[in-house]
């Protein structure tokens, strides 16, 4: 069986460019021996380009009020069953300081999308306060959706330096099926460009296992990430939420479906590592929703970033983008201890107090890193 794809593995070993057809074939692969070879090859690329230190970004889920209505998301504006919240600035800063005191190199502030001035000004103030309180030592990533170029500039000037905005799928037709008419693929692309122009390290990614998505779509997603010169990649399995148009029919993922999705997610991570080599790749929380050690498996397939949840436990049940989100009844200290053991067991170390920026960003921008 190994012979079937031997030529592809030789291409990978020689560092040759993989075509759309190659990537599609590799995504279809099921043979355990071949999969093992793929993950080992990706791990070698990871070791060579980014090493085996895992960097943390503590994620603060700052609010679930959202103006968007994405058909797949549990906190979409039309879901009237959600108790809406927005943390006040003190709470966000307090959680940021928890990250700092616990030696997490960076944090991510994520929330539903809001463009109103009250919200965007609040975020600017929070970024300034976190920078001042940590003497600029805590890396600040934002994941606050589509904003104007002016707002992206303002947040960058205030001290944020990374931004995560998933393209969700690089197939415009599929994007249209997943979103209502007032959400646009071209606006999303323009927002990603604004972020690059504003000077951020830019992260994007896709969901995997979406209804109607093919292996060729996912192969194209990988080439999209490469061609867009993306610095950071965050991809996760699509996990249905029953109170959404896309998930309404679903009664929960079966065990075999979870297994298959996790395998697909690992193949995507491995191929992104092989094709984009020096980017940061997150082993996302959604992997853990499929299997208790899904994130560690993601690290072994080529990921190098973990985003531990540092949101106050009271708020966690109200930020369910998808169902069965893990750790909603745990607190940040429990998550910290649990993760440390898990990462140690796979032989990797944690880059405490380090930013762990994407080497790709410095290669792309010609800038020089000022943080280890
Ligand atoms: N509002 C911001 C940030 C929060 S949503 C934004 O949309 O960018 C963050 C990510 O959650 C989205 O990009 C999407 O990829 C993911 N997400 C939403 N619903 C999901 C679901 N049902 N399964 C898996 N991931 C989901
Ligand atoms: Fe809002 Fe983000 Fe969910 Fe879309 S994915 S509904 S923008 S929180």
UniProtKB/TrEMBL annotation:
The UniProt annotation places S-adenosyl-L-methionine binding at: 168, 188
- Look up the record and name the cofactor or cofactors this protein needs: [4Fe-4S] cluster
The chain's coiled-coil residues are none
Name by which UniProt lists this protein:
Radical SAM domain protein
The positions annotated for binding (3R)-3-methyl-D-ornithine are 143
Q: Does the keyword Metal-binding apply?
A: yes
List ligand-binding residues for [4Fe-4S] cluster: 66, 70, 73
Q: Which Gene3D superfamilies match?
A: Aldolase class I
Name of a matching Pfam family: Radical_SAM
* GO MF terms held by the record: 4 iron, 4 sulfur cluster binding; metal ion binding; transferase activity
- Which parts of the sequence belong to the Radical SAM core domain? 48-280
Question: What NCBIfam families does the record tag this protein with?
Answer: rSAM_HydE
Q: Is the keyword S-adenosyl-L-methionine in the record?
A: yes
CC cofactor note = Binds 1 [4Fe-4S] cluster. The cluster is coordinated with 3 cysteines and an exchangeable S-adenosyl-L-methionine.
Q: Which keywords has UniProt assigned to this entry?
A: 4Fe-4S, Iron, Iron-sulfur, Metal-binding, S-adenosyl-L-methionine
């Amino acid at each position: 069986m190994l012979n079937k794809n031997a030529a592809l593995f030789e291409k990978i070993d020689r560092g040759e460019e993989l075509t759309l057809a190659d990537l599609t074939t590799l995504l279809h692969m099921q043979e355990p021996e071949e999969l093992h070879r793929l993950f080992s090859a990706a791990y070698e690329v990871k070791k060579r380009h980014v090493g085996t230190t895992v960097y943390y970004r503590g994620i603060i889920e700052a609010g679930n009020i959202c103006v968007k209505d994405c058909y797949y998301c549990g906190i979409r504006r039309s879901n009237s069953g959600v108790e809406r919240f927005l943390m006040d600035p003190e709470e966000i800063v307090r959680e940021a300081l928890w990250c700092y005191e616990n030696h997490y190199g960076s944090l991510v502030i994520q929330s539903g999308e809001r463009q109103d001035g009250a919200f965007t000004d609040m975020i600017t103030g929070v970024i300034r306060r976190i920078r001042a309180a940590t003497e600029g030592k805590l890396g600040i990533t934002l994941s606050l959706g589509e904003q104007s170029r002016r707002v992206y500039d303002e947040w960058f000037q205030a001290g944020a330096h990374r931004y995560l905005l998933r393209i969700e799928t690089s197939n415009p037709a599929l994007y249209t099926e997943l979103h209502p008419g007032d959400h646009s693929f071209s606006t999303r692309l323009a927002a990603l460009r604004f972020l690059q122009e504003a000077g951020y390290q830019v992260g994007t990614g896709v969901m995997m296992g979406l209804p109607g998505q093919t292996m060729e779509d996912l192969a194209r997603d990988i080439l999209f990430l490469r061609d867009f010169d993306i610095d950071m990649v965050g991809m996760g399995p699509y996990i249905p939420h029953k109170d959404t148009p896309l998930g309404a029919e679903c009664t929960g993922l079966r065990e075999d479906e979870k297994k298959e999705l996790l395998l697909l997610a690992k193949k995507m991570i491995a191929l992104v590592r092989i094709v984009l080599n020096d980017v940061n790749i997150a082993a996302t929380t959604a992997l853990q929703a499929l299997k208790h050690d899904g994130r560690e498996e993601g690290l072994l397939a080529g990921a190098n970033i973990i985003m531990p949840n540092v949101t106050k436990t009271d708020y966690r049940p109200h930020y369910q983008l998808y169902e069965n989100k893990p750790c909603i009844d745990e607190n940040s200290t429990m998550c910290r201890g649990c993760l440390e053991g898990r990462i140690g067991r796979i032989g990797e170390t944690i880059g405490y107090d380090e930013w762990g920026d994407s080497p790709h960003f410095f290669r792309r921008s010609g800038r020089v890193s000022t943080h280890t």
